[in-house]
Amino acid sequence: MNKAITMTIKKIILSILFIFSGLVVAFAQDATTDSTAAAPVKKPLAKAPFESGIFMDYQTVSSPPAKTLEFILQHRFGNIQNGIHDIYGLWGASNIRLGLNFTPIKNLMIGLGTTKNYMVQDLQVKYTFLQQRKGGFPLTIGYYGNLGLDTKTSAKGYGMNYKFTDRLSWFHEFMFARRFCKMFSMQIGLAYSHFNKVDSSRMNDVAAISVLGRLKVSPQSSVILSFEQPIVVNYDPAFMVRYPNKWLSINSSTAPYQNVSLGWEISTSTHTFQIFMSCANGIVPQYVTALNKDGSFWNGFILFGFNLTRLWSF
Amino acid sequence: MKTTQKIFTVIITMVIAVFFIAGNSYSQAKKPWNVPDKDKNAKSTVNLKDAGVISNGKDLWAKHCKSCHGSKGLGDGPKAASLKTNPGDFSSAAFQGQTDGELFFETSKGRDEMPAYEKKVPEAGDRWAMVAFMRTLKK
Q1: What are the structural domains, with CATH classification, of chain A?
Q2: A268 to chain B: which residues are within 8 Å by CB?
Q3: Which of the residue ranges A110-124, A281-295, B18-32 would you say has the lowest mean pLDDT?
Q4: A66, B63: Cβ pair inside 8 Å?
Q5: Binding-site residues on chain A for chain B (CB distance < 8 A)
Q6: How far off is chain A from B49, nearest CA to CA, in Å?
Q7: Contact A44/B125, CB-based, under 8 Å?
Q8: CA of A171 to nearest chain B CA: how many angstroms apart?
Q9: Which residues span the domain enclosing B58?
Q10: CA-to-CA distance for A313 and B8, rounded, in angstroms?
């Protein structure tokens, strides 16, 4: 069962990469090589597929306009499993992140943030390098990267060799989004996270496929949902040689749980509000993807959260 | 001076003061825009009568404009009461009598409490779509 699922996931990843490379070549060939012909007219840009660069626990291909400062407040309540004793997580163990992003030029966003759990200080960058066009290129494609520094974990338990670099973690994601119509947009993300040092219950490297969907129900409101499937990557050469079909796995004892999120988004000129239920409280992307071991959605592990952003234009 | 005469005098003075202040407030709303001639005569890059363009403009209005100008452009949005400037009545003949270029310029550049929407809505076609929607607010 694990082998069949792993092979299926490998095929999906390779298919997406194949389709993407084919689309880039096909549209590159639109450019004429005849020096006497007129330059091709660029098709107009399609509207952005998402109202905000943040989407519950994930990033989207969208960034604010150039010269915009964005403040982000992300809050995750405790999980609901304690019931009324902590009012379904409202007064349970929470996590919170405060962040600032800036878009110095169109389609490039840089940012930093600080998060309560593990006292993670993070830097992030996002670049949208291809945009969907009306009657033209069908996707918006972007890259997102995050570097996290765990400033809370004590060296105790990790031994004498615990170094500063052991506190670092990384997250890389390529995002492929499409605005199908005014009412519906979707994004597929291929992500890779790495922790320099983890305890024995986790793996350093976790890949993931995420799917985000937005259904616009009014000019300012949308239903938003997402699903992420983590894939543990075991880079031990001896392991890869001995078990060539097991170096990717989704249900080993070290595999993080899937993340299922459903919520409501309201977007105005200067604010975006998202309130939702989710299964991961990490907030920082690599912590959401790779360290989500608190509980499974299928076993009723759910928590509520909200994101709030505010924009200033310069 | 008898008491009733004093009271009458105070009331008349207060009424005059109220009209004076209201008149000043009204005159603030009448502060003219200085739109350059080339912008007054600017032509739209999209078809302002196209239903899709108007629909796009309506969505952008709902997101960016409705909170101050109201859903029908009557200047009665939820934030309007807290503004120093009267957002105006976009259904009026005075507003609709402006050229498309004037509306586009005022939307793009803003002034005082009104943001410059060329930063929030960077695509010119989208701002023209907002002008197209404003034309539907006519009485």
Answers
A1: 2-27+46-152+162-313 (2.40.160.40)
A2: 63-64, 67
A3: B18-32
A4: no
A5: 44-45, 47, 65-68, 106, 182, 219-220, 267-269, 311, 313-314
A6: 19
A7: yes
A8: 29
A9: 33-135
A10: 53
User: Two tokens at A310?
Assistant: 């505010």
Q: Does B59 touch chain A (CB under 8 A)?
A: yes
Together in a domain, B47 and B14 = no
Residue in A with minimal Cα distance to B57:
A219
DSSP result, A147-199 = EEEE-S--STTT-TT--GGGGEEEEEEEEEEEE-SSSEEEEEEEEEEEES---
A contacts of B120 (beta carbons < 8 Å): 65, 269, 311, 313
Q: CA-CA distance, B124 to B57, in Å (whole number)?
A: 12
Report the alpha-carbon distance of residue A55 to residue A49 in Å, rounded. 12
Residue B10 sits in the same domain as residue B55: no
Judgement on whether residues B55 and B26 belong to the same structural domain of the protein: no
Min Cα distance A101 → chain B (Å) is: 16
* Backbone torsions φ then ψ of A256, nearest 5 degrees: -65, 160
Interface residue of A269, A270, A272 to substitute, partner B, most B CBs within 10 Å? A269
Does A66 sit within 8 Å of B120, measured CB to CB? no
Q: How many domains does chain B have?
A: 2
ipTM: 0.71
Q: Are B20 and B49 in the same domain? A: no
pLDDT, tens digit, for every residue of A29-42? 444 444 445 556 77
Q: For B38-93, write each residue's pLDDT tens digit.
A: 999 999 999 999 999 999 999 999 999 999 999 999 999 988 988 888 898 999 99
Dihedral angle, C-alpha B92, B98, B102, B103, nearest 10 °: 30
Widest distance between CA atoms in chain B: 71
Put simply, the answer to whether B122 touches A66 (Cβ < 8 Å) is yes
pTM of the predicted structure, to 2 decimals:
0.80
- Tell whether B88 and B112 lie within a shared domain: yes
Same domain as B69, residue B104: yes
Residues B39 and B81 in one domain: yes
Q: Examine the domain organization and report whether B67 and B116 are in the same domain.
A: yes
